[in-house]
Every structure is written in structure tokens, then in C-alpha cells.
Design goal:
alpha/beta, Rossmann fold
Length: about 270
């Protein structure tokens, strides 16, 4: 891992990826969101606040900024940043997710593969582009960052949220670290590895933050059952004897994820 990048080889085929996410939407991702809607929404509300706070650090705010969320899923993050004044747009390659997002945001959300589909946006359209929980899922990271660079205005802000393969949690957990999930996660980065990569595409002024989520034990239980069944089996005896009131208590949780802010150079 000297390059700061952990990669799944061989890559899953495009057909395997489509089938994986089709099953995942029906059986896992959206079901998990619906079962814990309030907690899920609060996580994205807090993430929107983190983004706005970092913009304030540089004398800016989300208010009035044109924002594109790539991999927007069902649009909850877009709804949160819209409340803070952003002019929002989103893309996701899963039609069922986009259909749900469109019930709240209309045609501002499109079904698209950001790398291969030519979107109806001129180059340098957006002041801020968010890539949240996505970069680890794609096979063509180069294509993704090239397209982001085309759509982001000079001086614009890129926000990436992704697992941190160099975190202490990842180091201690080893192969049991939940983000080590082939097909679901293809590329995992350390802070150094991601910064090195983004520098090649003309980004500077980096700010890395650990992504601490406020979750309930009940939400964590559901997430482990869905996405980390081996770990769920280990924890299930403890969960089964935990009082129900305690399962609903919000707790700060850090599983080794990061939020990265970077500015596109004016000449990039």
C-alpha cells in the first residue's frame, strides 16, 4: 500500500456492477434508509453543515452556490444543502433512486453515468461538486476526476467523502474493516494517496477531516446486518440483550472515514 491505494483485482465487470447495485437497492441500501430514515437524514444534515462550515473558513457559504452531487442516490443530501441556499443538481446511475429524488427535486436530478454519459451541463458550470461515498465504488477513477474537472469552475470546491484506508480503525481492523468489500468497494485511499491523486488533476488547498457520524446502536445493528454480516454475527449476542431504549440513543461513531475539501486551481 505504498501508493496509498487499495484496489480490488480483477475489476468486476460492468454487468456484475449493475446487477450488484440493482439487488443492493432492492434488498439493502434503500431498505436500510427507510428503516432508519430520521438517523440517515440527520447524518446528511450534519454533513451539509460540515461542508458549509468549511466554506465559511474561506469566506464563502453554500448560499447561492451552484452544486452538483455525483452519486446523489435518493437526493437527501441535496435537500439538506438546498435548505442552506445552494442551487442544487444531482446525478446517479440507479434509475429507482433517481425516480425517488425527482419526487422532491424534479428534473434537477438525472439518471447518468457521469463518466460515459454526456450531461446537459456546459463545462465549468458548478461552484462546488460533491462526491460522497462514490469514488471507492467506481472502476474508472481517472475518468471520474477528469469529468469532475470539466464541470467544476476554476476556483471551485471539490468535496470527497470516502473510507480512509490509512486510518487507525482500518489498521487495527485489518481485513475485518467493513469497507473491505469487493464489488461494493473497488478503490480505497489513504489521505496521502488521495491528495497525491487530486494534485495531478489540478487541486490544492486540501483540508482533511475525520467523518464522525452520529448514529444509534439500532442503526449500526441494521448496517452491520446488511453490509457486514460477519461482524453482525459477532455482535448479535450483545445486541440481543441490550435494552431497547439504549438502542435508540444517538452516539458519535467513527469507522475510519474522511471528508476531503480541495480547491480547483484557477488555471486547471
Amino acid at each position: 500500500m505504498k501508493c496509498g491505494n487499495v484496489t480490488t483485482l480483477p475489476y468486476p465487470t460492468p454487468e456484475e456492477i449493475v446487477q450488484h447495485y440493482r439487488r443492493g437497492f432492492e434488498e439493502k441500501n434503500y431498505r436500510a434508509v427507510m428503516e432508519h430514515q430520521a438517523v440517515y437524514q440527520s447524518v446528511l444534515r450534519r454533513l451539509a453543515s460540515i461542508v458549509n462550515t468549511d466554506l465559511h473558513r474561506n469566506g464563502r457559504s453554500l448560499s447561492g452556490m451552484k452544486l452538483l452531487d455525483i452519486g446523489c442516490f435518493t437526493g437527501e443530501f441535496l435537500m439538506e444543502v438546498k435548505k442552506l441556499g445552494a442551487d442544487v443538481y444531482g446525478v446517479d446511475f440507479q434509475p429507482p433512486a433517481v425516480h425517488i429524488a425527482q419526487t422532491h427535486l424534479g428534473d434537477r436530478v438525472q439518471v447518468a453515468d457521469i463518466v460515459h454519459d454526456r450531461l446537459l451541463f456546459p463545462d465549468h458550470t458548478f461552484d462546488i461538486i460533491t462526491v460522497l461515498g462514490l469514488i471507492e465504488h467506481v472502476t474508472d477513477v481517472t475518468g471520474l476526476l477528469e469529468r469532475v474537472g470539466q464541470l467544476l469552475a476554476p476556483g471551485g470546491v471539490l468535496v470527497v467523502q470516502t473510507p480512509d484506508a490509512g486510518s487507525l480503525v482500518a489498521t487495527l481492523a485489518g481485513r475485518r474493516w467493513p469497507p473491505f468489500t469487493p464489488v461494493e468497494h473497488i478503490h480505497l485511499f489513504t489521505r496521502h494517496g488521495l491528495q497525491t491523486l487530486l494534485k495531478r488533476y489540478g487541486y490544492a488547498d486540501f483540508c482533511f477531516k475525520p467523518h464522525v457520524k452520529v448514529l444509534t446502536p439500532s442503526y449500526i445493528q441494521g448496517a452491520f446486518r446488511t453490509f457486514a454480516p460477519a461482524l453482525f454475527r459477532v455482535l448479535q449476542p450483545i445486541i440481543s440483550i441490550t435494552p431497547k431504549w439504549l438502542l435508540a440513543v444517538p452516539l458519535p461513531v467513527y469507522i475510519g472515514e474522511m471528508v476531503v475539501f480541495a480547491r480547483k486551481k484557477d488555471n486547471a
